[in-house]
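Ticket #4471: complex job returned nothing on first submit. Input attached below:
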Amino acid sequence: MSAVLSVLATKLSGAVTAAFGAQYGVLDPELRAATKPEFGHFQTNLALRLAKSLGQSPRAVAEQLVDALDLTGVCEPPAIAGPGFVNLTLLPSVLAAGVNEPVTFAPRGERVVVDYSQPNVAKQMHVGHLRSTVIGDALCNVLRYVGYDVIRQNHVGDWGTQFGMMVEQVLFEGLAVGALDIEGLQQLYQRARRHFDADGTFVELSRARVVLLQSGDPETLAIWRQMVEVSLAEFDRIYAQLGSPLTRADVVGESAYNDRLPAVVDDLMSAGLLTESGGALCAFLPGFAGRDGSPLPVIVRKSDGGFGYSATDLAAIRHRVDDLQVDRIVYVVDHRQGLHFQQIFALCRAAGWLPEPVPAEHVAFGTVLGKDGKPFKTRDGDTVRLALLLDGATARARALLDERAVLDESDRAGVAAAVGIGAIKYADLSSDRINDYVFDLDRMVAMTGNTGPYLQYAHARLSRILAKAGEAPGLVTVLNDPAEQRLALLLTGFGDTVVQVAETLQPHRLCTYLYEVAAALSTFYEMCPVLTSEGEVRTSRLALCAATRAVLQDGMGLLGISAPNAM
RNA sequence: GCGCCCGUAGCUCAGCUGGAUAGAGCGUCGGACUUCUAAUCCGUUGGUCGCAGGUUCGAAUCCUGCCGGGCGCGCCA
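Support reply: We reran it on our side without changes. The output follows.
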């Protein structure tokens, strides 16, 4: 809570205690942003809440509350309105102090793992990975900002039966894997798949090859490593283009847990949590039922003796809790895996691997759709390559920059990338992640309304003003114009908004907030001349510009969107 | 069949965890550039919050039941 809000909350609680007794003073002061500008800055609904237990009318309660409330030096005299709302309006000086006060968070001494992006070796990254990566980056930034020690984990799909098949196909073709690119790998996979479906002998060889891989056969591992390397190199390029901080150091693929899988089975077995069913080792947990009402298993070890993805996820949780000592685990994975994570979390709790105080959260997100309302694919039904989408957005941004011709040629490429990529990211982040959304470049790059470019434009305007002013900004002291007050009030809410995002893991709340700031800035920009104003007003407005620019820059930074100084 | 999610203006979405006459953008229509970048701003238009009950001072928000849509439900991840 911002300093201003906590002062108000304390005063309100004090007034309630004084007027009605200590038993009511502990209530949530119900401080909310005013619903309309004419109602002031904040409102409290305490009087309505208290009316019943006190056996008095809400307005009578409100009057007593206001009588007991001393807000001298903080607010205008409080006003009672409607059925019993108490409206509070901060003094301009208090509002100014709130803007001047920097937002800082002390380290929490808590560690969080964020598991996200999760592309698959030998497959092109697609829009699903885009969502996970963009949302995951934003959440990492926000969590770190509010004081968490953040560990990124990219749980790359680099292990499993398909690699036995692929290695076998490589040997069959006598292929030099290192010479392939990601597209070549994907085609190799498809050839292997067809081979596997058509040739029984190849099936046997593939299965044997999986065993060789998992038991560490040098030749098999060498080929597998080359496939991983080709894929990681491609992921590195995409992350760089996307502006994601993910690196090789964050990659902890499924293969990393291979050595720990037997222990997962052994320990579950000792704990009496495993049942043999159809040759597979399964955990049946209360509350999970399948299609016909029969118990739904978590398959920990498959009937062929291999480990499934559940075993890997279980091992990962143990590693994170025991070795990384985390206090919170976050998975940014599409919503279709909701049931899977419920089962994994429940099993870990049952096994005692995931202590009660450590929350494990599935940050679910919806599907990216094409304009036809179906999952986003090419006309041929293939997944759309991420690199091409990013190029497309950047090209459109470039076309707009060329048209406007405000930037030098040499600056346009960099800004076009920032704007194009920013547009895609913002479109992904700005509505509640649980919703599906339609990938429509036209709309994203239209750059009008609630879009990334709108925020960037506001920031660029501020950068220009501050550069032209040519002086270090001072402090906000004068807030007379309604446009100034509106902007200042919004700026004081930055810290609270970021905290909310850290709690709910919903980045769109930050988007909504930043859009409101940018819109308020635009109005201020129209109504209040800065450079041509004089004296203290000019100084104060410059400071307000600097504060707004800082919030926009920090906020976009948290979203993973860069803010050019001109566009 | 069971479970999770979604349903708010013509379209795309918010709605701060129960508060005032439900808000933005796009679109429509009408204004504002010799003035800090008009990728902007100001005004206008537009809703039976899927439907029906319930809870209470008060419901888009919480509960129940329906309707419509998406997704998931044993060896893929």
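Residues 218-242 of chain A form the longest helix (25 residues). Closing as resolved unless it happens again.
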